[in-house]
From TrEMBL:
SMART domains: PBPb
Native species: Thermincola potens (strain JR)
Gene3D superfamilies given in the database record: Periplasmic binding protein-like II (3.40.190.10)
Domain Solute-binding protein family 3/N-terminal: 40-258
Record has Manganese as a keyword: no
Ranges annotated as spanning the membrane: none
Protein's recorded name: NLPA lipoprotein
Database matches in PANTHER family: ALIPHATIC SULFONATES-BINDING PROTEIN-RELATED, TAURINE-BINDING PERIPLASMIC PROTEIN
Keyword Lipoprotein applies: yes
Family of the protein in this entry: Belongs to the bacterial solute-binding protein SsuA/TauA family.
Length: 325
């Protein structure tokens, strides 16, 4: 009997050791460590998303072992609604939009800057109407400027004019949310001034509008586009998102090195208007980096002052620096 019990114990010990070895040698296969987690990315037909379109055209996602679907939207509002609904995992947006998404209950994190690592990237222009007599920034004091309220457009307008020495009370604005209508009202002299991003700013110049301030020609960096992702997507698909950021950055670097190669794609995907398609300059992208705390704080402080936020978020609540490592 004693010999039988000993035999049972030996078998149990052997079995335990075997299963223990199996557990130790079995590869860990969590979502954290896999690249084949599908990623849905919301895109607009603007130059910020051009590296995504390049990567798609050249099969870079597949070469990196990624399953990426680019989902187009006609407006930023539609794209952001899809992010809030969990229909997409990430998008290229701006710092104001990122903070508003978080305030609305969608926890997001910024992985990196796309355009705007330097002031020379991501052009926004304050323009005077062709029929106005405005030629200097001082002449815009108390003049209503067409903007999209509570957006990066209004933020940039305020920063440009405050930087030019305006008092807050001297900055007047009129809300024209849709950019094509803002362009039309400016060039038809229905407003005296407007803020527009490229390529619409370049088209406005072509149609006679005058540049008053070009944000690529000032020292302070007031406009940045960023890649952002839902926090729950990062938790489940971190490895895939990190690789996606690398693929985006590589495509952006290829575009910067060889803009002529990708010019047809730029004209098609960024919807460059016909009157400027032969002269419009291709965007350049810097080495990927995260927003500085100073730049982020400037945006958040403006939003608190505008009562768009109740309080300022911390840097770690907005940015996940590990996604670039």
């Amino acid at each position: 009997m004693k010999r039988f019990v000993i035999s049972i114990l030996v078998c149990l010990i052997a079995f335990t050791g075997l299963t223990g070895c199996q557990k130790a040698t079995t590869p860990k296969s969590t979502a954290e460590n896999t690249l084949n987690q599908p990623l849905n990315i919301g895109v607009l037909f603007i130059e910020d998303n051009l590296p995504f379109f390049i990567a798609e055209q050249e099969g870079a996602f597949e070469k990196a072992g990624l399953k990426v679907k680019l989902i187009p939207f006609q407006s930023a509002a539609e794209r952001d609604a899809a992010l809030q609904a969990g229909q997409i995992d990430g998008e290229a947006a701006d710092l104001v939009a990122a903070a508003l998404l978080k305030k609305g209950g969608t926890d997001v994190r910024i992985s990196s800057i796309t355009l705007g690592a330097t002031p020379q990237e991501g052009r926004f222009v304050l323009l005077a109407a062709p029929g106005s007599n405005i030629t200097r920034v001082e002449e815009l004091k108390n003049v209503p400027i067409a903007v999209s309220e509570n957006t990066i457009i209004e933020y940039i307008t305020d920063q440009l004019l405050l930087g030019a020495g305006f008092a807050p009370a001297e900055i007047k604005k009129i809300s024209v949310p849709k950019m094509p209508i803002r362009l039309q009202m400016l060039t038809n002299n229905q407003v005296k001034a407007a803020l527009l991003p490229d390529p619409l700013a370049s088209l406005a110049e072509k149609q006679g509008a005058r540049v008053i301030i070009d944000d690529t020609k000032i020292k302070t960096n007031v406009s940045q586009v960023v890649l952002l992702f839902r926090k729950d997507a990062i938790d489940k698909k971190r490895a895939a998102i990190k690789k996606l950021v690398q693929v985006y950055s590589e495509a952006a670097r290829n575009l910067t090195k060889n803009p002529a190669k990708y010019r047809p794609l730029l004209i098609e995907k960024a919807k460059i208007p016909d009157p400027i398609k032969d002269t419009y300059k291709s965007p350049t992208f810097s080495k990927p980096t995260v927003p500085s705390k100073e730049d982020l704080d400037r945006v958040l402080n403006w939003m608190v002052g505008k009562k768009l936020l109740d309080k300022k978020y911390s840097y770690d609540e907005m940015v996940d620096v590990s996604l670039l490592k």
